[in-house]
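Example record

One chain of 188 residues, shown exactly as stored in the release files.
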Amino acid sequence: MTEETDDVVAPAEAAEEPTVAVENPALVVDETEVTVWAPEPSTDADDVMSLSVDEWIQSVNFDSTEDVPIPDRLVDQVIGQEAGSVVIKKAAEQRRHMLMIGDPGTGKSMLARSMTDLLPKDALEDLLVYPNEDDENEPRVRSVPAGRGDRIVKLQKESMRTQRERSQKMLLIAFAAVGFLILIATLQ
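Predicted structure tokens for this chain:
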């Protein structure tokens, strides 16, 4: 016995799972299982996690915000994203990519910036992209050690600025010369 719709024929008896009749097979979405690794923070990692908010507030004796200790590393300054901090540390250690999805203001940008502090400094490099005169769809890419890219860009901007100033001065001199020649020609 088969169930028929306008576009799909699905044998109902042969399948172990329930079958779904689809009128338009182009609308069927390929479902892929994705494992999301977000470990829960351990309770012994931080005393604050083991206390309720009311208990913690009672135990804190701060006169001003200057008394609040601030961690040195940016990844330790992120509040409320302990699981994200663990994942960021592991991704930086393994040199993996990260995709963070969430509402604005939940700490995604701060975690991303903190990952740059965790990456080894000697492995970082700057990529410079130049236009390709032969094919505009394939730009030229140059890799330089970390920190040198900023200096190269500043030098090139300075060079372009001086070249533009020089061409503007030459154009001004040319206009002045032409104006002077026209003035002499009208006086004669």
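Notes: The beta strands are 2-4, 9-11, 125-130, 140-145.
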